[in-house]
Amino acid sequence: MISIQSFVFNAFQENTFVLYDETKDCVVVDPGCYDQEERDELVDFIAQQELHVKLLLNTHCHVDHVLGNYFVREKYNTRLLIHAVEERVLRAQKVIAPNYGMVQYHEALPDAYLEEGEIVKFGNQELKVIFVPGHSPGHVAFYNEQSKVLIGGDVLFYNSIGRTDLPGGNFDTLIASIHQKLFTLPDDVKVYPGHGPATTIGFEKRTNPFCAVANVKL
User: Fold this and answer.
1) What secondary structure does DSSP assign to 50-96, as a single string?
2) Is pLDDT above 70 for 182?
3) pTM of the predicted model, to two decimals?
4) Core-most of 18, 31, 52, 104, by most CB within 10 Å?
């Protein structure tokens, strides 16, 4: 069974996730750890649980989600995987990060690319890659069907959605991604977003003011 540990990192209050199971294999998703205290918090948890980091995954590559990429990849000698369309966003962060005062940002480029429908495996777990652009052009989400959990990045939040006013963002594309890719998942799928509390597909279909589906029973 999959276990999920979340951390809230950096000034943007970004959610970083460690996914693991009984084999002690794990993946790190969207490491936003920037300062030493945040890095220590992540490292201490992985050490305490005696986990083995197998992969580093990014849902997308806005600065708040990639601040810890270099650290995690070097610390655990692991590979960084992103969607190919998102590489230009990742490369831009070395210019963008200092504008937010994050002058200690170190660039880490991808080792391989994720594709729609691909299955990422670690331990006894499988994560299906779902391509959900709109907030960012190469945004993906990771779905574990067995446990009905979705690591959704900045697409769907608790009664909100990702912003679309950043370069590469598009509101219509984002809403289409939500309706066509996420709202087709079972209602009891638990969504772990890139910011804020977890939610479920069914709850957002009924109540989200940006994308709720008409005629869904309350």
Assistant:
1) T-EEEEEE-S---HHHHTTHHHHHHHHT-EEEEEGGGHHHHHHHHHH
2) yes
3) 0.97
4) 31
